[in-house]
Amino acid sequence: MTRPLSRLLVTGGCGFIGSAFIRRLFGREDFTGSVVNLDLLTYAGNPANLDGAVDPERYTFVHGDIADAACVSDVMTSHNIDTVVNFAAETHVDRSIHGPGAFLRSNYEGTFVLLQACRESGAHFHQISTDEVFGSLGDDGAFAEGDPFAPNSPYAATKAGADHLVRAWHHTYGVSVTVSHCSNNYGPCQFPEKLIPLMLLNALGGKPLPVYGDGGNVRDWLHVDDHGDAVLAILRGADAGTSWNIGGRCERTNLQVLGALLDAVAEQAPRDRDALESLITFVADRPGHDWRYAVDCSRIEAELGWAPQVEFSEGLKSTVRWYLEHPEWVEGVRSGVYRQWLERNYTQRSE
Ligand code: NAD
Ligand code: DAU
Fold it and tell me: Is the CB of 47 under 6 A from ligand 1?
C-alpha cells in the first residue's frame, strides 16, 4: 500500500502538532504534493508557526471551521483533495473540564463533517486521536491497539466519540480511514497551557510552578517531530480501516519531567537551580486526573518501520533552547499578535 499524498487537506495546521507536521512535510525532498491548511485560529492556532517553512506555490491557508460543512465541502472540491489529516481539535483537558461545549463541536461534530466530505469525494481520512481514549492505567501495562475505550475527561470523551464515528464511516460507507493514538507530545511552538511550556515560561519568569496532586502521575513523552514522521508512515503505508498506537517509550512522572526541565533551564537560561526548585508549588489535583498513560508502539515499529528518534533529555534541551531563542513567539502568543496577521493574510474566510 502506497498512498500518493498529492493534495492534502491538513486541519488544525496552525496548532502545535499540525504545524510541526506541515514543516516536516515541506522539509522532505520526497514530498512533492500540495497542502491546504484549514484552521479556525482559536487561541491555540498561530500562523507564525509556519513562517518560512512552506513552499508558497504548494501551500494554501484557509481560515475556517471543520464543523462548517459548506466551508469543508468548498475546500475539498476547489482543491480536489485526495487525503485529509485531521489535527484540528480543542486539546486542553483542563479547559474541557471548565467548558466542554467547544470540545463537542470541534472534536465530534467537526470529525463528522470531515467524514461526510470524504464519503462524498472519496478522499482518504486520517484521524489524529489520543492515547487518552483508553483511559487510565495502573502501575503496570501499556495501551495496545484494540484496547477498549474508557475516556475519563470531557476532552477524551469527545476524541473517543470521534474515533467511533471514524470506525462507523469505514464500516458502513466504505470511507478509507486510518487512526493514530499518540501519547504526550513536546517540542517547539506548544501553547503555554500544557505542562512543559507552562512550567518553562513560569520558570523563566520566576513564577510558581503548579504541580497537580503529588506530581506522581505518569505520561509517555514523544517529540513532536517523531509524531509527524509516524503520521506520515501511516498515511503512506497503512491499510484502510487500521488504527495505530504511537508512543515515545519514555514514561516519566510529572515531577521527573519538571526536574529534567529545570536542569535544562538552569543550564541554558542560565538560572540558579535551587531558586528554580523553590518555585515548585503543589496545588489541588485536576478533577478526574488520569494516573498513568503508556503506549505500546511495537506494532508501528514492526509493521511500518517507524520508531521514536529523539532522546527525551536532548529533545527537552532543544525545546528549552527554541523557547529562549524565540521571545517574539512567546510575546505574540501572550498578546494575541497573530490575530493581526490573520486580518492581513488569510486567503479565504467562510461566513
Ligand atoms: P493545539 O491545541 O496546539 O492546536 C489545535 C489547532 O486546531 C489550532 O490551530 C486551532 O486553531 C485548530 N482548531 C481548533 N478547533 C478547530 C476547528 N473547529 N476548525 C478548524 N481548526 C480548529 O493542539 P495540538 O496539541 O497540536 O493537537 C493536535 C491534535 O493532536 C489534536 O487532535 C489532539 O487531540 C491530538 N493529540 C495531541 C497530543 C498532545 O500531546 N498535544 C497528543 C496526542 C494527540
Ligand atoms: O496523552 C495525550 C494528551 O496529552 C493529548 O491528547 C492532550 O491533547 C494533551 O493536552 C496531553 O494531555 P495531558 O492532560 O496529559 O497534558 P497536560 O500538559 O495538560 O498535563 C500533563 C500532566 O501534567 C498531567 O498529569 C497534568 C499535569 N499538570 C499539567 C499542568 C498544565 C500539572 O501538574 N500542572 C499543570 O499546570
Answer: no
Residue of 106, 201, 212 to mutate, ligand 2, most atoms within 8 A of C-beta: 212
CA–CA dist 110, 304 (Å, integer):
29
- For the Cβ of 333 lying below 6 angstroms from any atom of ligand 1, the answer is no
3-state secondary structure (DSSP) of residue 6? coil
Q: Is 184 in the pocket of ligand 1 (CB under 6 A)?
A: yes
Buried b / exposed e over 158-183, threshold 16 CB at 10 Å, is bbbbbbebbeebbeeeebbbbbbbbb
Distance 219 CA to ligand 2 centre (A): 8
Q: How far apart are CA 187 and CA 149, in angstroms?
A: 28
Domain boundaries, the chain: 7-190+223-247+292-310
Query: pLDDT tens-digit profile of 247-294?
Result: 999 999 999 999 999 999 999 999 999 999 999 999 999 999 999 999
Ligand nearest to the CA of 192: 2
CA–CA dist 167, 54 (Å, integer): 32
CATH class of 7-190+223-247+292-310: alpha beta
